[in-house]
Amino acid sequence: DMAEPIQQLTRNNNPQERQTIPFTLIQRQEKLGDLLYEKRQYGKAKWACIKMKEKQYEQSICLGFMKLMRYICEQNSSGLYLGITVPIVTIVHTNEAQSAMTQAVTVAYYLPEVLQDEPPHPFDSDIIIEEWPATIVYSR
């Protein structure tokens, strides 16, 4: 099922072709010289998002990522490979009391700068294009 998206990604997997999302570094946490995480602020932008709710958290992330890869690799209204932006963001949802994680996660792909004004529409109706306000992200 993922053969074509993986082949497309492999053909286009040039590190020079990956677009790093512009951000402002807020905090960097290291331990013994190893990076543990960075706290970053991203500006207002459009993201392709999918919310998944599988039995296991890891399944939700994997399935959401695979669906986004299909969108990135030609299953969109432009019919083109959109390019990779890094990082792909995973949002962990909590219960109403914010005391425990739920099974639901959102996996999100930042649309490259050239597509921000007119993002291609996904063929998969589970994927939605959202405009996020400036956002704080923890990256590792």
TrEMBL record:
UniProt GO molecular function: heme binding
Matching Pfam families: SOUL
Domain of life (superkingdom): Eukaryota
InterPro entries reported for this sequence: Reg_factor_effector_dom_sf, SOUL_heme-bd
PANTHER family the UniProt entry points to: HEME-BINDING PROTEIN-RELATED, SOUL PROTEIN
Family: Belongs to the HEBP family.
Protein's recorded name: HEBP1 protein
Gene source species: Dryoscopus gambensis
Encoding gene, per UniProt annotation: Hebp1_0
